[in-house]
Design goal:
Helix content is 56%, strand content 6%. It has 16 helices and 8 strands. The strands form 4 sheets. A two-stranded antiparallel sheet has the order 1-4. The protein has a two-stranded antiparallel ribbon with strand order 2-3. The radius of gyration is 29 Å and the shape is globular. The relative contact order is 0.10.
Length: 517
């Protein structure tokens, strides 16, 4: 008879099982929790702050949906004219639309309404910013390459839809600021040759401002666009799980595995903590930082315009582009083509998103990497041309964003508005080129410095005299590495390689097999 181990717990009868064990068995008997989802729950996720930008966008979307559902209970998407008689005394007796009146009622009459409204607006700004930052992380690390081109396309589409969703929600209150933005949007529609007037009549239902725009924007904002966003986010997450995460280079990390925390419970706990942080920060912003005070602008009137006010940041570059293009017009067959509106507001955004959609395929074609899968992230310095193009694009965006507030900048710093406009026009052409050249040179310098450190080691601060009478500094091998940093010298710069390319080229595709005759 074998002796029973003292540390082994005696078996318990079925009736004495723990409540948690009983609950787990009960659920597993009805749902594939342990057997079916076991592999999914053990899926590894890399642990680096840059990989949480996508989750920041996801949890901002959750906050947007929850606060948006609450706001729909009190908002009236109507353009009929009413006389305000609410708690905000300065606007009592003023004629306004029912949409603007309901916005004031949410802000001053509904308990907690202003807090929820501001949380919703801040969440929208964070949502768009998080998607943009996530796309930049993917771009600069090369995580858009095969087999993730489709996920890049979905991400760019999500960014485009988030801009449209933000503009639609921004325009719903029918205040003077959003109404001015809608007037600009109508002008952009009219600038499109041949079909511009038809587009304007279709969108507004009549001559501007009409009575159908707010109800139509309301349907888009609460139903169509959120549905498409949620569907694309779901597909995006499915592809992330299926294709596995990219990761930084390091010991034990290859193109065939992922090193990180399992989905449950480690990554789930980290992600849940991030969701609580996002909710807390957005709540603090909604309670302490005022945003979009529509009562100070007043209701929209076609004969008025707000001064010194700016749109949300994600459409500020369009505002700047409209202000920088000179008043160019061309008359063709009795029709006037307004280049000063068509180029910055229609052609520029179309080219921007066309470049974003096509870039993964073009880069892989030019570098010869379209036949090889990539699961390890590049460091920006290892791809000088790509990094230079990205910085040049950001520089161009920064110039346009600054131009969107050129009147405020000129008044604040007491400089000539015309002079500032011309300076920004020149900067829009010159600054991106200089940014590209400087960034590319900086990437090569960083690679050269890193190669020297890996080959010769780091200085210890000691100086020794050689037998010949010279002096040399003491060095020791590199022992500390940042995420993704190589353990051995990387390839030489492009100007020292015969093909002039950076990075590791993919192997040539195999020739097709000969068919028997």
């Amino acid at each position: 008879m074998r002796a029973q181990r003292r540390d082994a717990a005696p078996p318990r009868p079925d009736g004495e099982r723990g409540r948690g064990e009983w609950l787990a068995d009960t659920v597993d008997a009805r749902l594939p929790v342990t057997d079916g989802a076991g592999r999914l729950l053990r899926k590894a996720f890399p642990h680096h702050w840059s990989f949480f930008l996508g989750e920041l966008a996801l949890y901002s979307l959750v906050v947007l949906v929850l606060t948006g559902v609450w706001l729909t209970l009190f908002f009236k998407p109507e353009m009929r004219e009413v006389v305000y008689d609410g708690r905000y005394v300065p606007l009592r007796g003023v004629r306004m639309s029912a949409a603007f009146e309901s916005t004031l009622n949410i802000s001053f009459d509904v308990r907690g309404g202003l807090l929820i409204r501001q949380i919703h607006h801040w969440a929208a700004l964070v949502f768009v910013a998080a998607i943009g930052a996530h796309l930049l992380r993917i771009f600069f690390t090369g995580a858009f390459r095969r087999p993730r081109e489709l996920n890049w396309v979905i991400g760019v589409t999500l960014f485009l839809l988030s801009l449209a969703e933000g503009f639609a929600g921004y325009s719903l209150p029918d205040d003077l600021l959003s109404g001015t933005g809608l007037r600009i949007a109508q002008g952009i529609m009219l600038s499109i040759p041949v079909v511009g007037t038809y587009l304007g009549m279709f969108a507004f239902g009549a001559q501007f401002p009409g009575e159908d725009l707010v109800p139509r924007l309301y349907g888009l904002h609460i139903l169509l666009l959120p549905g498409v966003l949620i569907a694309l986010v779901t597909v995006h997450l499915i592809l992330v799980f299926h294709l596995k995460h990219t990761q930084w280079r390091g010991p034990g990390r290859t193109h065939r595995n992922v090193v990180g925390k399992p989905l449950f419970p480690h990554f789930a706990a980290t992600s849940a903590g991030l969701s609580v942080i996002v909710l807390g920060v957005l709540s603090l912003l909604g309670g302490l930082a005022q945003i979009n005070p529509v009562w100070t602008y007043g209701p929209y009137r076609p004969d008025q315009a707000s001064t010194g006010s700016q749109p949300d940041w994600y459409v500020g570059f369009l505002e700047g582009a409209l202000r920088l293009v000179p008043p160019w017009e061309t008359a063709v067959a009795g029709h006037t083509i307004m280049w000063n509106v068509l180029l910055p507001a229609v052609v520029l955004p179309a080219l921007l998103f066309l470049v974003l959609y096509a870039y993964p395929f073009v880069e892989q074609r030019l570098t010869g990497e379209r036949h090889e899968e990539h699961h390890l992230c590049d460091r920006p310095r290892e791809r000088p041309v790509r990094t230079g193009l990205g910085v040049a694009g950001l520089t161009c965006y920064g110039v346009l964003l600054l131009a969107g507030g050129n009147d405020v900048v000129a008044q604040t710093f007491r400089i000539s508005l015309n002079t500032l406009t011309w300076v920004l026009r020149v900067a829009l052409v010159v600054a991106p080129v200089l940014a590209f050249m400087l960034t590319r040179r900086l990437c090569h310098a960083l690679l050269a410095s890193e190669r020297e450190r890996l080959e010769e080691g780091v200085g210890t601060g000691e100086v020794r005299q050689t037998v010949e009478g010279g002096y040399e500094s003491g060095r020791r091998p590199v022992e500390e590495f940042r995420p993704g940093a190589p353990r051995r010298p990387v390839s030489p710069p492009a100007d020292q390689r015969p093909d002039g390319r950076t990075g590791t080229p993919a192997p040539a595709p195999p020739a097709p097999a000969r068919r028997p005759r």
